[in-house]
Design a protein that fits this description.
The structure holds 2 protein chains of 2 kinds.
Chain A lengths: L12 H8 L4 H23 L2 H17 L11 H27 L1 H11 L5 H5 L3 H8 L3 H12 L4 H8 L3 H27 L2
Helix pairs in contact in A: 1-2, 2-3, 2-4, 3-4, 4-5, 7-10, 8-10, 9-10
Chain B lengths: L2 H12 L5 H11 L3 H20 L8 H6 L14 H26 L2 H35 L6 E7 L7 E6 L5 E7 L8 E8 L5 E7 L8 E6 L9 E8 L10 E6 L1
Antiparallel strand pairs in B: 1-2, 1-8, 2-3, 3-6, 4-5, 4-7, 7-8
Helix pairs in contact in B: 1-2, 1-3
Classes of the chains: A mainly alpha, B alpha+beta.
């Protein structure tokens, strides 16, 4: 008697996460195939270190494997959640690195700051997705820089304020405005593309 | 923590840019506040879009093996899904229909043929005009986001449209703004959604019309805040005749606080 092999690659992310509760390794494999590239690319962008980026991917999928109930479908798409976990872990590493640098050599820490302030518009230059580039272009340069320092360099608002010599309130406002505009631009782009 | 304080932190939270104590306090609030949690979700998606906008790189092949803690299952080969087969058939059916249609057209009188062409031309003209109008509307809406300052006010669906949500973005300097809505009841022909600004003394003024939504009730439009932004206490959205009304005639479907 032949058994039909189920095609799990067509199963939704949410159903695959359900299967992780039953320790279904094939479900984890499919989720890896769908999302590992995005996680790896984010890790590589933030940490500029392939080995560290691989560890981020591994830690993120193992968290999902061990605690699939920590992802709630009502709280958004799985990919966004995975990217959030990976980002959080990459930020932890960046902050540890900065602490190490601070205590080992103040000079090197200051060098890092100068790289972050490079007027080459690091954030804009490193983005390739058309909708995201358009959305980021709508931001004034100080807001783009604040997002770059926070999201890519993993700096807290207080660290950004200290680095730029700006009041903390100014940095908070910049980040808030930047993210409000980004989400609005991206939502608009999505609605526009859905129009017939 | 109250909602206003939480909302001030959501953007930085989505970027992992809060201090640990701020983050913990916010997460406590998010666990109990549905409205702020929904806002957080939108920021999380925007941060995710940033991540996906970076250049994409394939991880090394052996990483999957390291991540998988048990043997993989089954064959990776799979049959082509049924919907791809349907897609293969459709163009043939369409081609056959077009051929039959063409033969019929040739057989028809010159008058009918010309009339048909004229109708098609009119349809194409209407379509092009609609596309132009939508592109202009989109550009106008996007231009609002280039303002130095922008105020965001979420709107929630009332009992008449509990799944609906809206967001209002206004430049408080100029009063120029834009509104995005999701999951409203789709608009019927000859109807529009109208935004209203409301004051505590009962004064209300129109903020603009939304004349088009997609089948899911999603849409966007530019709006205008009459007078100082802070002079208004609430906003509401009602369904009105296509040209709009002087005062609201429909029931409120979305509402928000300024």
């Amino acid at each position: 008697m032949m058994h039909q092999v189920e095609d799990v690659t067509a199963v939704s992310d949410e159903s695959l996460v359900d299967r992780l509760q039953r320790q279904d390794v094939r479900a984890l494999e499919v989720l890896y195939e769908r999302h590992a590239r995005a996680l790896f690319s984010l890790g590589l962008k933030m940490l500029a270190d392939q080995e560290a980026a691989e560890e981020i991917v591994q830690e993120t999928f193992l968290k999902l494997w061990q605690r699939p109930d920590s992802y709630l479908p009502s709280r958004g798409r799985l990919l966004s959640w995975l990217l959030g976990v990976a980002h959080h872990r990459a930020v932890d590493r960046l902050r540890r690195r900065r602490l190490e640098l601070r205590y080992s050599s103040d000079h090197r820490f200051a060098e890092q700051g100068r790289v972050a302030l490079d007027p080459e518009e690091a954030l804009l230059a490193s983005l390739t997705g058309e909708a995201v580039v358009r959305a980021v272009r709508t931001l004034p340069q100080p807001q783009r820089l604040a997002v770059e320092l926070a999201y890519v360099r993993g700096m807290t608002q207080a660290e950004i304020a200290a680095l730029l010599g700006e009041p903390l309130g100014t940095i908070k406002t910049r980040l808030r405005l930047a993210m409000q505009k980004l989400r609005a631009s991206l939502e608009l782009a999505e609605m526009r593309s859905a129009q017939p | 923590m109250i909602c206003d304080e939480a909302r001030d932190l959501l953007a930085a939270y989505s970027l992992d840019s809060l201090e640990v104590d701020e983050r913990d306090e916010l997460e406590e609030h998010l666990a109990t506040c549905q409205s702020c949690a929904a806002e957080q979700l939108a920021y999380q998606e925007a941060a995710g879009a940033l991540a996906l906008g970076f250049a994409q790189h394939e991880p090394p092949r052996d990483l999957k093996q390291r991540v998988l803690v048990a043997a993989r299952l089954g064959s990776r080969e799979r049959a082509r899904p049924w919907w791809t087969r349907v897609r293969m058939v459709r163009p043939q059916l369409q081609a056959a229909s077009v051929a039959a249609g063409l033969a019929l057209v040739v057989a028809l009188s010159t008058t009918l043929w010309a009339a048909g062409l004229q109708m098609q031309l009119n349809e194409q003209r209407t379509l092009a005009a609609n596309l132009r109008e939508r592109a202009t509307r989109y550009d106008k809406v996007v231009s609002v986001l280039q303002a130095a300052d922008i105020q965001l006010r979420p709107m929630q669906g009332t009992q008449l449209a509990p799944a609906a949500v809206g967001r209002l973005y206004v430049d408080p300097e100029t009063g120029d703004g834009m509104m995005m809505v999701r999951s409203l009841p789709p608009l019927a022909e000859g109807r529009a959604y109208q935004l209203w600004w409301l004051r505590a003394d009962g004064k209300r003024e129109s903020g603009g019309l939304l004349t088009w939504t997609d089948r899911q009730g999603n849409g966007y439009t530019s709006v205008q805040c009459p007078g100082p932004f802070r002079a208004w206490q609430w906003v509401g959205l009602t369904e009105e005749p296509a040209g709009g009304s002087v005062t609201p005639t429909g029931q409120r479907l979305l509402s928000g606080t300024i």
